[in-house]
Amino acid sequence: MDWMASAMRAARAQLETATHNLANVASDGYRRARAAVILTPGGLVARETPDPVQGGIRETGRPLDLALLGPGSFRAGGTETRNGAFLRDRDGYLADQQGRRIQGQSGPIRLSETAVVGTDGAIRDGGRFVGALPLPRGTTVRSGALESSNVDAISETLGVLTAQRAFETAQKTLVAIDQTRDKAVNDVGRLK
Amino acid sequence: MYAAASGMAAQQTNLEVIADNLANADVAGFKQVVASFTDVNAGGSLGLGTATAGKHPLFAQGKLMHGGGPFDVAIDGAGFFRVERAGVLAYTRNGEFTRAADGTLRNADGWALRDIRIPAEATAVHASTNGRVIIDVPATNHTIDVPPVTGATERTIGTIRLATFAAPEQLLPLGGTVFAATHDSGPERRIEAGRATGPSIQFGMLERSNVSIIESMMQILTAQRAYEANAKGVQAADEMQRIANNINRG
What we know:
The complex is a heterodimer. Chain A is of the alpha+beta class.
């Protein structure tokens, strides 16, 4: 019976993962979480792992929209993100939409309207080097484009339905076990 | 359940923004607004869904077209017209002006172009690419001491100055095509038009909105599908709750 309860909890966690993914189908740079149900001595547990599949690249034409091709992320303030919809803040620093400054290899990057972001992450302003985005080897930057969320609404909806059915199955089984025990305890050996 | 509900709310916001873009697709100087979203997590890996990261106008240049109005003007390049209403200074790229009774040039919402006042005796108005506004006045006007050649004479009455901002995306929309400066946009910097590099004033032209109707329709379809998918998520979560509540009834 504990097993079935753990199966229900796992299905519930799967649903939460799928709905969180669905909610972020329009969040640029978002990487979906994969929920895998695994068997442990304590029962069934849903484990979340990030899905590293590259999201689609969408052309925007804005020079400060940056898409990462390959692993890695931008550092905005203290957080990491793959959403590269950046702007210049009032002091001329590269910042994200919430106003957090983007960290280059040596601190925030100050640039003018005419700055160009190279595919290697180096930022040049009229030929002058003003900073570089820290990137893992092999990752390149595309300026004028954004990485869309890698969530696929259809498969995520399937995930929602699967989790729902798994939950129902576990619940039905739980009830069946309960009824069997009920019989064993209350009916077996009873004299009419 | 709340993650899925936040997804529905996000798509609702998205649809509103796209609908507003579409509604303004024919308004001169209107700039497409884009809503962006970000995932929300409570500390560790517990996903709480999504939230709006911001709504920002995209200041990509709209195509210039012949306006047809006698006071139409457009900016080719970066920058904004400086306009004023009831003492409030604001900024717009909508140059569809008409002449008000007091000689000022006003747009449909009553915002008047700063520094320019067309005198009553003007018979024609034009402006050069550097923003200098020139009027024709009848030669009989005695305030003009230059001898007339063609029966009318020209007079410069002022210059249209433009403003730029360090972070124009952070300007505050005041509705339609007019924006106010904010702390995050930085203060206005005045620039002169008509330099070799930089914006120029195009008199007689209007800047179309930079909204693409086809692209907006596609965005609406995508947003609707995403909304429905999230609604499914809410439904499923609700259903699970119901089953869990009825567990001991078999």
